[in-house]
Amino acid sequence: xxxxxxxxxxxxxxxxxxxxxxxxxxxxxxxxxxxxxxxxxxxxxxxxxxxxxxxxxxxxxxxxxxxxxxxxxxxxxxxxxxxxxxxxxxxxxxxxxxxxxxxxxxxxxxxxxxxxxxxxxxxxxxxxxxxxxxxxxxxxxxxxxxxxxxxxxxxxxxxxxxxxxxxxxxxxxxxxxxxxxxxxxxxxxxxxxxxxxxxxxxxxxxxxxxxxxxxxxxxxxxxxxxxxxxxxxxxxxxxxxxxxxxxxxxxxxxxxxxxxxxxxxxxxxxxxxxxxxx
Length: 278
Fold this sequence. Notes:
Layout: H1 4-7, H2 10-21, E1 64-68, E2 74-77, E3 80-83, H3 89-92, H4 106-117, E4 143-147, E5 151-156, E6 161-166, E7 183-189, E8 192-198, E9 204-205, E10 212-213, E11 218-227, E12 230-238, E13 247-256, H5 273-276
Parallel strand pairs: 6-7
Antiparallel strand pairs: 1-4, 1-13, 2-3, 4-5, 5-6, 7-8, 8-11, 9-10, 11-12, 12-13
């Protein structure tokens, strides 16, 4: 399934990666089941511009299923065309909207040079590793948020992955054992949920082109639910080893309704990685 990430040219790789990672939706049980409790227009369609829902204590409720919000248009290169509605540009280059791009250190530039020279074959995602955050927000799978007063659970379709964000006031751990998603705590700044994360592994990628992140990183995500159908996430990274200065980008997530999440187990009948391991 991920062979295209190993042995093809870069741009060809990108197109096939997107196609390969979009799971089939045929045959599921609740693909057209109406999502309960959401406002609807006279024709029955969801009113995605309705006010953002709130929890009983008055906080914005981020619960729901989300997908990277990207425009629908044709993406054509070298006679290959796909619909870009399932491909966030930030999936390729997280800093694409920054005027000068991400502020890479010389170490990062060398890392990315090696990663591109190898055709991206060392991408952890290509080896069916977990969809690490914040990268997971941009990947072509659905993400479901379940919010409670003391914890936010973020579920991701790829490999049935999950992330825990504690809202109970605990501090971030000191000298944590690095993990795929790190350790996350959240607090409220008005109607914005601020998530702080540390303890991320050194070998993670932030995008397909291989932007690094290291154990020294501190990541801050600021979640704002603009209305029922739109969530904005400001991602700020402070990682002195990988970047010359702190930087931030803002991505958007669209609410997905009247359907369900589906399992996408990367290693199910996967045959490519064992053929191309060193």
